[in-house]
Amino acid sequence: MHALPHDRTGARIKRLRLERHLTQRALSDLSQVPYSTLTKTEQGVLPASPHLIAAVARALRVEVATVTGQPYVTELRADELDVLIQPIREALNVYDLGADPEITSRPLPILQEDAGRLLVAVRAGDIKQVAGQLPGLIVEATTAAHAAGAAEGWLLLASYYRTAYDVTSKLGFPDLAMIALSRMEWAAERGSSPVIGGMSRYMRALTYLRAGEYRTGERLVRTGLGVLEQAGPGRERDVLTGQLHLGAAVMAGRARDRTAADGHLGEADRLARATGEASTVHWLSFGPTNVSVHRVSVLAELDEYGQAAQVGRAVEMPKGWPASRRSHHFAELARAQMWDGSLDDAFGNLLRARRAAPQQARYHQTVRETYAGLEAAKRQLPDSFLSFGSWLGV
Fold first, then answer.
1. Domain residue limits, the chain
2. pLDDT (tens digit, 9 = 90+) per residue, 149-189?
3. What is the sign of the dihedral through the CA atoms of 349, 332, 210 and 240?
4. Structural domain 1-69, CATH architecture
5. Paired residues of 278 in beta bridges
6. Cβ neighbour number for residue 344 with a 10 Å cutoff
7. Among 71, 125, 158, 394, which has the minimal tally of Cβ within 10 Å of its Cβ?
């Protein structure tokens, strides 16, 4: 089911509920969302939190994307991004067909340079540029990997599949992101890399986090940690292990398990103290800064918005920290400040999220829900608030 243009999440929830002939009380009982919270969300008085969206989607037996209205087709079309999705889908579908006789691939070292360049570009927020180049490079790398039949080629292909996941998940195509991850895991197995295998499970866990399937996500974290135990000890393994713990901490927070969340944050913090800032190790941005950023997210998931805002304001991001991560942090901080009543500060951080990575912020669900919350507060905000909404397409 596709969302109506400029439809808000609360209105979609109401429409889906009525289609299933459910009262607000019945949906509240099924989703375990407090009745007053559900009614105010449907009315547009409260923004929809990630926890509420996932709970309602489970209760209504629909995908989270149906509730959020992703992908945002109108905006994708305006940005000329919609035409770039189908070629990525087609490139992912030829993974097992062997070398294409009509393609002459360049040497692996050159393809590896291109793969690294795309990873950097995604983290700089250049999604459109990457989406345009990615399909042809995936097809070329597929031929190169099958022709070489060696670990080096398969791990190169896994890197391109990872970038496909990055692009499609940021643009709101969870089904395509899952396909990209399955291809990444397939290539990692052929490349016999426990590190890449562990990373693919971390990313799969994130997709289940967004869908509200916390138990499955937790199982993926555990299997990812088990896979990483097969890797040799060292900084690379510590970075991947720490990142898995960060993902698990947010998942536990959204599941309202404070003890588990604190445990995972503590383990990630221990590893980050050993690795230091390691933002370029597989471009996961792991390190003490990322632990602090995830602590903000966990506190917000636990509805401790005042503390989340306090911790978030104290985060000092190192020079050169990836723009995509900066933008995500500003969006999370804005959400906490909005719920805490610091509306001007919240809007200021939405603007920072946009400045850091505009293409990412435009399609970021947290940015959109936070804007909706600020709008519902009916407090006078500057004229730039309305222009920001026009830019979002809401």
1. 1-69, 322-394
2. 999 999 999 999 999 999 999 999 999 999 999 999 999 99
3. positive
4. Orthogonal Bundle (1.10)
5. 286
6. 12
7. 394
